Amino acid sequence: MTENGDATPLVQLENVNKHFGALHVLKNINLTVSRGEVLVVIGPSGGGKSTLCRTINRLETISDGKIIFDGQVLPEEGKALARLRSEVGMVFQSFNLFAHKTIRENVTLGPVKVRGVAKDAADKRAMELLERVGIAAQADKYPAQLSGGQQQRVAIARALAMDPKMILFDEPTSALDPEMVQEVLDVMVGLARDGMTMMVVTHEMGFARRAANRVVFMADGQIVEENTPDEFFTNAQTDRARDFLSKILTH
């Protein structure tokens, strides 16, 4: 039950399948994400994690099954889909910032164009968010002048600027140099503590342990196991999960 007393999940996936031609990449996925929950999805490459993440705002269509977001079945297209996308933030592996716009302009673009927020109000909010992610001093620079870690923090601020109900993170640190990973994860941990609903596809097991309410382990297009971080990392129930953990936790 969340603070507003709404116990219905924010996201429900029911028997979701996805085929790329002959390749069956999502197999009968049943999953819910509660309001305020941080769900971390881990597993070997090619297991369907990113595809799963991208179906929730319909960047990937599904072959069959049903996805319900905030009580509504995911719309196919048009204005209803645009509205949904404005309520689901997305942070990608590559930062996808507009190179010809300043950092501040990157953050204000969505609220002004999509939400109809006045420019002054959008600017004020953008500066608050850039402060929150620790890069307010970079507001008038262009993306190419920032490090990868700083650019990814701009991408997070840009997602937050739309006041989304949820943010999807698709391997947000995998394109970063190792020394920049922590600065991005620290921002994400802060969001988790503030109660943002998040679905995070990541290889960062430390983040999964620190910030997740629940860990979902995917392999071969299926959810193999899900549990609390403590239980999953200390007492995995399936051979597939134990095998995966033995390979990554020994390094």
From TrEMBL:
Keywords: Amino-acid transport, ATP-binding, Cell membrane, Membrane, Nucleotide-binding, Transport
Membrane topology term: Peripheral membrane protein
Gene3D superfamilies linked to this entry: P-loop containing nucleotide triphosphate hydrolases
GO cellular component: plasma membrane
UniProt subcellular location: Cell membrane
SMART domains: AAA
Enzyme class: translocase
GO MF annotations in UniProt: ATP binding; ATP hydrolysis activity; ATPase-coupled polar amino acid-transporter activity
PANTHER family: AMINO ACID IMPORT ATP-BINDING PROTEIN (PTHR43166), GLUTAMATE_ASPARTATE IMPORT ATP-BINDING PROTEIN GLTL (PTHR43166:SF9)
Name the UniProt record assigns to this protein: ABC-type polar-amino-acid transporter
Protein's organism: [Actinomadura] parvosata subsp. kistnae
